[in-house]
Amino acid sequence: MKRTALLLACACAFAGSVRSEDAFRFKADRMSGGRAAGKETTLLSGHAEIVSEDLTLRADRIELSGPENRFVECSGQVSGTDEKKGIHFTTARLRYDRTDKIARLEGDSVLEDKENGVVAKGRFIEYNDKAGVTTIQVGVRIFKDELVCRSEYAIYRRKEKILELTGMPVVFKDGDEFRSDRMRVDLDTDDISMEGAVRGTLKEKKKNAAP
User: What's the pTM?
Assistant: First the structure.
């Protein structure tokens, strides 16, 4: 009985701290929290999920903190989906700022832009929704159709469909291999621009046999 009353009190406090225009749904196996001034927190654990505007987050553990639950921290089998933009991601740990709309993925992470057919992998991914810019670091792998890109650092400008690669970048395209210090890939046309120590390998294309 006491546990039920505590959960209801936490839920009421949680709901009361969310602005109506930013309200979101939540569910989990367990819930706890504290509303001390300046230290507001809500902890959801066990099949935790929150749905805010177009974004859905799922994880083993979700913690909300800050004024009006501005900050969201997820851990354990984290996944997220932005249905409106066609974005889906998985990661080991997520930090999300609901006001600035910036998501930071840590650990082995995958971000898929279904609208543009792009899949990005790395150890750290920062997705800035307002700017439409994604930064990927460490063990970067980016795929689009037959295009495969690798580097240690990459910036994906989603609106312009431009990919910028640094840190030993290499691009594989239709059997050809391209390397340089800096590379820029137009993901709309698959055109590649390279600067610094440019080198590569072009695979000889077989000619069609005469009829």
Answer: 0.81
